[in-house]
Fold:
Amino acid sequence: MNPAEHKSTVEAAPARPSDSCAMVIFGAGGDLTKRKLIPALHNLALDNLLSRQFAVIGFATTAFDTESFRGKLRKDLKEFSSRPIDDEIWEWLARRIYYVRGAFDDADAYKRLAASIAEASAEHGVHPNLFHYLAVAPRFFGAIVRQLEVAGLAKEDGGQWRRVIVEKPFGHDLETARALNAEIKQVLDERQIYRIDHYLGKETVQNLMVFRFGNGIFEPIWNRRYIDHVQITAAETVGVEQRGGYYETAGALRDMVPNHLSQLVSLTAMEPPFSFGADAVRDEQSKVLHAIQAFTPEDVLSKTVRGQYGEGMHGTESVPAYRAEPRVAPDSRTETYAALKLTIDNWRWAGVPFYLRTGKRMAKRCTEIAIQFRRAPFSLFRRAGADNPTQNRLVIRIQPDEGIALTFGAKMPGTIMRQGEVHMDFSYADQFGGPPSTGYERLLYDCMTGDQTLFQRADMVEAGWALIQPILDVWSVLPVRNFPNYAASTWGPAEANELLARDGRAWGKMPR
Ligand code: BG6
Structure:
């Protein structure tokens, strides 16, 4: 078969349902289960992507039994489903949902869990494949994995598979991330570990690879010769909501950069992988992360910015300062905004800065990657009064309003030669309709079919932490004095503008 034939068969093949398996959700009484996991399973069943031989066992300390758990999930689904609920599908799924109450470190509870898995599997003809979703606080990860081993729920010793999905945050810094990797690897093989980064479940993030490597026209200009710099923004309008307790120990840098933003950097900057296989793709991502120039203490002072929001107005509504949020210290020094300038030391990117920024309580919710191209080498039209060649800009909008836009110069109509800026805009919603997915369907499906491409490998997680560790170190010994330094519903502290202004650049205009 020649490569072209192979490609068309791959594209034309209908997706098969997942392998027959049971899914255990640790922390099943929590937010993630109701907001994302159950709606995603419902959507997978709607699309015929869930095996008919399937079961879910919720495991948590919350006081439910199987009946009341099913009832609660039905109510939650009404609130959180991304698609209209199909009653028949829900009934089918609900009959396959069970609940076990227990503490994560109680060996007896794992015996009850094993019994419930056996019962559910017998009732629904489920193959002994098993995956565990750790939707729990990270301090339980190690204990759960050890208990799974003792209960015989982690070992693959027949034709079946056993997998574990681990939620973020994966560690608190480089050292704890390494320790956690070492701990769970005492029980599990790397190929059994699925470290989730929900950004990789987003359609537009996955589209980055198709955009770059499924088209012939972009790759030749995707380098230092044509690209002046890259800006990556992940801005949220919400504050810390009810998560002050966690956020006080994390801050914007830990919360967003070693994981989500590093993924965006690596997918934007990676070399073309030799195949779409999990390790081929992740090898290239990992190389980029390792090629990011390590921050020296001086770099931390000149190339990073931190901010914390004060009170402000969100439309007509006044919103409190971070320090007035629930479970936040009144003199907190936790940053709710971070901006950094990265340099990637390889032949493709040397000399092309990557500016990253992320923050809570920004003026607009918007995650995007903006590729700023170099200007035309000189202005051919300056005698005609059009002396400012447009700087072409390609913006990949991750969310909301998913799409891709290219800005370029065009002649303004009229007898006089004038140049103006125009946009070519592709919108996912216009082209393909609204987003029906929660972002978790793909990740759950991939785990159930054994595809680790969209999950983080141990070396990638550690490279993400290694990137920010020098910043954490300097920031912790040099506490800030000027917090809060931006008003809620603005674009962050003035220093973030200076970070680019020093290089003769500015953050791109954001949608209003
Ligand atoms: C999470 C962070 O990982 O990502 C949150 O802990 C943040 O603080 C969220 O709000 C952002 O995700 P999304 O999909 O809304 O961009």
